[in-house]
Amino acid sequence: MLHRLIVQNYAIIENLEIDFSGNLNVITGETGAGKSILLGALSLILGERADPGVLFDKNNKCVIEGIFKVKKSQVQHFFDQYELDMEDQLIIRREISAAGKSRAFVNDTPVNLSQLNELSRLLVDLHQQFDTLDLGRSDFQREVVDALAGQPEVLQQYAQLFSKYTSLQKELKDLAAQRDNANKEYDYNKFLLDELEEAAFTENELETLDTELKALSHAEEIKNSLSKVYYQLKEDEQPVLQVLKQMQSSLQALSGFHKEIPAIAERLQSSYVELQDIAGEVERINDQLQYDGKRMEALNERLALGYRLFKKHAVTSTNELIAIHKALSEKLENVLNLDERINWLENEGKQLQAQLQQKAEAISKQRKAQLPAFEQKVNALLGQVGMPNARLKVEMTVVPLNTFGLDHIEFLFDANKSNHFAPIRKVASGGELSRLMLCIKSLVARSVALPTLIFDEIDTGISGEAARQVGVIMKELAGGIQVICITHQPQIAGKADAHYFVYKTEMGGKVTTSVRLLEQEERINKIAQMLGGEKPTAAALENAREMVLN
């Protein structure tokens, strides 16, 4: 509920503060006193766009603040979604600078207008005389019927199931597109894979073959060098190994005469062993290395194949080719698996669709069951509020399965018992729509919790008993939720739990709007003035007293 509204420097309001009751709040005042300006200020904290021209004092900023008392469950999702701090009371503030810049805050945290508008829908339902868009929306009409049907859990289960179904259908569509694209590339990828499989390269193969080819290409040069090395080590007139052996023996004989000689002799022995091992390796390599023209030809062909595939796939190593081979293999296998996945999804989709159809039909049955009583109650209320010839009829037609079932709900209206029903948005006048909305919301309020309801001159065009009945309906409605109503009708004002009077004052050459909460005797006097003029008669005062006290 809206607990307090604070307005500073807006239009003809210099400074104003109102504390509202939690039930029926009525605002009255002379035409032009500023009642609609008050609602204009409230609209700003509900997300309406700001006009810098509304500043009372062009040199100062405008500040409008609304303090709400809310149940956490009512707004918890919004606060979680935008990571805002939740407190015991909710404060919405809107500021308009003298330069025309507008800012909005929720509990002192800056928010944008779309966020503010989203939050406001959870807090306030502002219904002005010609603001009847909601009533003409098919979504709103369906929500009304669902509220009366009282099956929120079933609707939630259906919505979750439908969300799962739409996600499945999206995946199915994406996979089908993948399959189509994959089929276009399948033959080419299969050719590339077959080419790599036929080549059957092993890890680091081309690099190893390249090394071998280089060795074969220089076989004669290598063998000559190896032979020369081996000859000098072991077969020369004075072989290196023999000379080393002799040197080591000479030193060994002297090892008892000098303490450092044994170490040198040992090092010569180590060198001898190492060179002897080298000679053996040289001999082995020399024996193994043979010029082989056929092997060289085979190596050249294998390497040529490899280098051609390097160029085709823009790589430089055997292992990269092997990785491409693996990726192509997986890609082709995935193509084959797509059909299996698509078939599974199609079967799953058929099962989900059958479940949705069954649940949607059950929801439709429950909706249809509410329509006769709903039409009867609304039409009875329309008679009470001065529209005895008006009739509402609800039309339900079958549409493809969607988030809300398989029903399209349309409210049809006949204002004159002509039996020519047409959609509300096409035939009902502003006043008719306002009273019809009141009747519908009064019924819905008994089934679901509504936010604060605000009605701006909903009673235009009615008086007498019809106005009294509007007051009765509002009073009943305010038993469960907060209602704020701007009215010119004394019959409605008499039903208020809190009566606020809007008036103009002049100070320092400036006209400003003020508001005050009326005490009981003040209420009686103001309602008497609404009945009988500026100087009410005793009968008007008595009539007003009866309206207030009964």
From TrEMBL:
<protein>
    <recommendedName>
        <fullName>DNA repair protein RecN</fullName>
    </recommendedName>
</protein>
<dbReference type="InterPro" id="IPR027417">
    <property type="entry name" value="P-loop_NTPase"/>
</dbReference>
<feature type="coiled-coil region">
    <location>
        <begin position="328"/>
        <end position="362"/>
    </location>
</feature>
<keyword id="KW-0175">Coiled coil</keyword>
<keyword id="KW-0547">Nucleotide-binding</keyword>
<comment type="function">
    <text>May be involved in recombinational repair of damaged DNA.</text>
</comment>
<keyword id="KW-0234">DNA repair</keyword>
<comment type="similarity">
    <text>Belongs to the RecN family.</text>
</comment>
<dbReference type="Pfam" id="PF02463">
    <property type="entry name" value="SMC_N"/>
</dbReference>
<feature type="domain" description="AAA+ ATPase">
    <location>
        <begin position="21"/>
        <end position="512"/>
    </location>
</feature>
<keyword id="KW-0227">DNA damage</keyword>
<feature type="coiled-coil region">
    <location>
        <begin position="158"/>
        <end position="219"/>
    </location>
</feature>
<dbReference type="InterPro" id="IPR003593">
    <property type="entry name" value="AAA+_ATPase"/>
</dbReference>
<dbReference type="InterPro" id="IPR004604">
    <property type="entry name" value="DNA_recomb/repair_RecN"/>
</dbReference>
<keyword id="KW-0067">ATP-binding</keyword>
<dbReference type="InterPro" id="IPR003395">
    <property type="entry name" value="RecF/RecN/SMC_N"/>
</dbReference>
